Structure formats: structure tokens, C-alpha cells
Amino acid sequence: MTDDTRIPVKPEIAKGTWVDAARFQAMTEEAARDPDGFWKKEAQRIAWMKPPTRIKNTSFEGDVQIKWFEDGVLNASVSCLDRHLEKRGDQVALIWEGDDPNSDAKVTYRDLHARVCRLANAMKALGVKKGDRVTLYLPMIIESAVAMLACARIGAVHSVVFGGFSPDSLASRLVDCESTLLITADEGRRGGRKVALKTNADEALKSAPGVKNVIVVRNTGGEVPMQEGRDLWYHEITEAAPRNCEPEPMNAEDPLFILYTSGSTGKPKGVLHTTGGYMVWASYTHQYVFDYREGEIYWCTADVGWVTGHSYIVYGPLANGATSLMFEGVPNYPDNSRFWQVVDKHKVNIFYTAPTAIRALMRDGDAPVKKTSRKSLRILGTVGEPINPEAWLWYYRVVGEERCPIVDTWWQTETGGHVITPLPGATVLKPGSATLPLPGVQAGLVDGEGKLLEGEAEGNLVILDSWPGQMRTVYKDHERFIQTYFATFPGKYFSGDGARRDADGYYWITGRVDDVLNVSGHRMGTAEIESALVAHPKVAEAAVVGMPHDIKGQGIYAYVTLNAGEEPSDALKKELVAWVRREIGPIASPDAIQWAPGLPKTRSGKIMRRILRKIAANETEALGDTSTLADPTVVEELIENRVG
Ligand code: 6R9
Fold first, then answer.
1. 105-135 pLDDT, tens digit each
2. pLDDT confidence of residue 266
3. Can you tell me which residues bind CoA (predicted)?
4. Which residue among 376, 427, 430, 498 is least crowded, i.e. fewest CB within 10 A of its CB?
């Protein structure tokens, strides 16, 4: 049905775009034919102390070795700061919009450079050296970006831990990467509430004895205990520090950061990114995918605690000399019009958010959007999970008034940046499809045996060859890196996602492969059924999981959240089953529907299907770790009202 909807490239976007359809074609061909030549040119987008002469040296076989630009020398902070000083020292680099709509701030490139150097010098004075790991546990404040860049400046490897994580999660991450320094704040602010960061950090530090110092940003001014000899106020140590700090020369393959990410099994993995390839990829994708143009205001709503914040609030935009907006708050505080009010206030041109936010806002109707202007918007983007065509079209029609192309960007912490995505000036859009691989990305689909599928097909999404932004290893556990990503389909990077490729070669991500159902021998993406359910006018959100079924192997269990004001009833359940049968086919009929006032989500907004599968399977004694849930009470409610 939605496969037929095509939205052509807008002439007004194509005009002056970085990459039009012809250029996209040419780039794709060149990057495949001559990766060394192509990436040698693209590498010039960042600042090198010694430009690389060796470009690609990668193997997905055996030990899996990934090296890009390996004889190049650079410092990431120079690309983001120093080289902009002459031309745009007085241009705003970061706009900060507070949780409270009356608080904001602007920091120029010159200011940011000085702040980064001061903190870098202060860290050096504490004995932090190249290669040391520094953990950041911070709210969405300017100091987060300053701290990341200050680490980069002195060659320290940052590990950002999302400010919503518990003391336990923070402790295990501190210990795993053996951080000696933690940078945190007294408190954070979100949706009108305070987040007790320093108190959490103190709790975590009881089990992370390797941490010698804690730098504390005074953010809210809340009373927090400071431990003599260990804890230092950020403002005190930076005030005294010199405002110039020579950037540490780094090899292209020296680590830039570690970011922990959850897998389907085991403890979180420390995804390691290195300096040269990551910076090239962040800059390349930010420029082309958002069609970023000189002087534009760009806003990514992610938290810096996730990879999206790393690549698309800090490194990509700043490498490109952009003005990047950083938002401390949430979409519905003080009210559900906030995103669009911020867009109008700062005249945002490019807006990048998550499908879960779009669906939540869609549920509240058009009025909160329509009371704002949004005339500045030119490009919209989404990331994080499959976007159902229903939400895509609402975003397109209501938020963007059919003026702004939507880039549905598929990528992962592991990929460093976008890998499958439309380009606004080049790609005909189809609502719900992440469309085509970027030039330089060799995507493919394989069946269960690893056989590469041709043409129209559905299978496991793999990437056949390396791209510069790829993760290099799991920190201190290269074997786990090989096992997780290269063992399932030897010689290929396995994403863990499933996808369908249509007759035009467009990719439709169906969700994690562990979410793919097999019902009576038919394979179905849970995202597909969810999308059908959400397309019903009364449904706000849906999550579908498999449940054990005697006859079909797996049955379909759907959790459904209704729009505000809709009443659950048995008649409505029947109606939804009939609706899904009509939308997809009888094989997709839900076997059970449970009304869900809320769904268990991680703090980054991802639905925790693991928990939903357990509830559906009536294995509620063994729910596993629920500590990363945004609201654990949701789970109790669901258990109580489980169906069947
Ligand atoms: C960037 C980010 C990665 C997983 C990935 C996939 C899902 C991300 C998506 C998408 C469909 C998109 N995902 N973007 N699914 N369409 N545009 O989210 O990284 O937190 O590591 O998650 O998110 O399942 O495998 P990360």
C-alpha cells in the first residue's frame, strides 16, 4: 500500500543542494570502484596535522582489522574549533535551550574554543594524559560538549554515560573502562524536575575505586556534598586555567571515544570509535544527509548520552562549522507544543528527532503544532527505530507542511553515523523506507544461511565492506567484537536488523531480527504489524511481540495504546484484528490484544521488547534487568492485565 506513495525531490531543495540525483549516482559508483581515491578526497573535509597517504586497510575475515587513514595525524577538536576561528570565530557554534523556556544561551566558536582549552588544561593539571579514559555523566548543558572536546584535545578517551542511567549502570561503565576521572554536575533538569546526578555519582563511586577525581559542574546550584581531595568544582579549576591548550597529535586510529550499548545478551559493550574515520564520517553524513548549508540553524533533539548526540549534536555539526542547538528539555514540557515553539524561537532550519516523539505528539492532534509558524524548517529527519508510514506522513504533512523532505536515517552506535538514508536533494522518498545506502556503503541482505540475496528480497541486513565511521572493536574485548558482528555471517558485518528491499532497491527496516516473528512459517516484521495498528485512527502506539503458539509456532501478541479520549472495548479489539487483516493479510491477525496505558521504554525511548515478550509468554518471574526503564511501574500494570 504505502510502497506506492512516492514523494519526488523538491525543486527548491534540489537547487543548490550538495548532492543531486546525478551526483549521488556518480559518488556511489566512484566510492565502490575506487574507495581509496574517493575517501582520500573526502578526508580533506577535516583538518589534518599530517594528511593520510594510506586510506583503506580493512578486513572482515579472521581477526577483523579495520584501519582507515592509518598514517594520518590529527586532533578532532581542531576540526571542530581551531580551524573555524578565522572565518567564523564570532558565529554561534552552540545554542543552548533550557528545560525552562525562559533560559537559553549562545556560545560562539571563539568562546567554545576557549572553554575547551581551559578544561583541557585543568584536566592535564590533574594528570590526565593521552589514552586515559574519562567518563562524563552530565545533563544536556554546554559543558557536555566542552568536556567531550576537551578530552579529544588532550587525547583522552571519553565515555559518555547517559544522565538518566542509575548509579549501578554508571559504576559498571566506570569500572569496565577503568576511568580515573569523572565529570558530572550537581543536578540536571528535565521536564520541570531535577535529576540528582552528583548523588547518583557518589553512589556509583563506592564501587568504582579507580576514579581519583570528580569534576562537578555547578548547574542548578543545588546543595551537594563535595569530598575533600577528590571532588573539584568545574568553575574553580577552569577559571584558573590558561585559555590556550596545544592539541595532542593523534594517529587516525587512536581512540576518540567509547560508548556503551546494550546487546541482546550480556553486559553492555564498549563500542570503540577512533579519530580519523569517525570524524570524516560524521562530517560527510552531517553535510550531505541534512544538506547542511552555511548559516543554517540545525537541531538534533537526541541526548549526548547516545551516539546520535555524539555524531549529530557535537562532532558532525561542529566539524562542518554549523550552529547546533542543544535542548535540555522534553517535547511535552511545559506543554506539547514545545518543540515547535523552540523551532520558531531559534528559527531552526533542520530538525532531527525520533519516531517515538513524533508518535507521542501525533497522539495529541494537530492543534499544538498548528499554533506555531515553523516557516524556518527546511529539512526533517528521524532516527532510532522504524517509522511507520502513518507517523511519517503526519510529520511530513502537519509538521513540515509538505515543504520539507524527511530523511529517515538508519544507523547504529556501531556504524558511527548514517548508513542507509535518503539525501534531500537526490532521493525520491517513500514513507517508512530508509531508502538507499549512502555512497561508500555496500549494504546487502542475506538469508538464514548467509547466502546473499539479489533484487527484491527480505532478509538479514549486512554490510559487505568497511566504511570509515565503523566501530573498530569492543573495548578490551576484540573477540566479542568478532563474535557479535562477524560470526553469524562470516566475512560480513551483521547489523542485527532485518530488512526488505523493494523493486527500486529501497530498504525497509523491519526491526531487530530477534523481533521478527515466524507465524505458521511466514516471516513478519513486528514493525509491519505495529505500523498497521498505528494506522488505525484510534490507536496512538502499538508494540507487537511473538508468543508461543501450539499450532502456528508463534502467535502475535499486540500491546495497544489508544489515543487520549478513546475507550477500550471488546468491539474495538475485534475491529483492530479486522483492520490488521485488511492492512496486511490474515496471517498478520493479532492473536491477543492487550490495552496498554503505557509501554516499557528505555530512557532513550526504545520500547523494551524483551520485557513485552516475557509478559506475553507469561514468564513474568524472570523479567531480567528493568533498571534502564524510564518508568518501571508501567510493567506492573501490564503484568496485571495480561491477556490469555
Ligand atoms: C542511531 C541509533 C540502533 C538500532 C538499529 C535499528 C534501530 C535506528 C533506525 C532504526 C529503523 C531507522 N534504528 N535507526 N530502525 N529505521 N531509521 O539509534 O543507534 O541506539 O545503537 O540503535 O536502532 O534497530 O539496529 P542505536
1. 999 999 999 999 999 999 999 999 999 999 9
2. 47
3. 190-193, 308, 332, 520, 581
4. 376
Please report whether residue 169 resides in a domain: yes
Measure CA of the first residue to CA of the last residue in the chain; give whole Å.
Answer: 32
Whether the complex's predicted ipTM surpasses the cut of 0.95: yes
Per-residue pLDDT at 199 exceeds 90: yes
Same domain for 213 and 80: yes
CA of 351 to the centre of ligand 1 (A): 18
Q: Is residue 161 over pLDDT 50?
A: yes
Q: What is the pLDDT of residue 583?
A: 79
Q: Nearest CA to 214 among 128, 113, 154? A: 128
Tens-place pLDDT, residues 454-488: 999 999 999 999 999 999 999 999 999 999 899 99
Q: Whose CA is nearest to atom 15 of ligand 1?
A: 385
Helix boundaries (H) for 304-377: 307-309, 316-319, 338-346, 355-363, 367-370
160, 303, 383, best to mutate for ligand 1 pocket (most atoms within 8 Å of CB): 383
Same domain, 440 and 583: no
User: How many independent structural domains does the chain possess?
Assistant: 2
**Exposed/middle/buried for residue 307 (C-beta within 10 Å: 0-12, 13-18, 19+):** buried
Q: Is the same domain home to 527 and 493?
A: no
pTM reported for the whole predicted model: 0.86
Q: Are residues 480 and 551 in the same domain?
A: no
Instruction: Give the mutation target among 410, 418, 470, 628 for probing the ligand 1 site: most ligand atoms within 8 A of CB.
Output: 410
Please give, one letter per residue, the 3-state secondary structure of 204-262: HHCCCCCCCEEEEECCCCCCCCCCCCCEEEHHHHHHCCCCCCCCCCEECCCEEEEEEEC
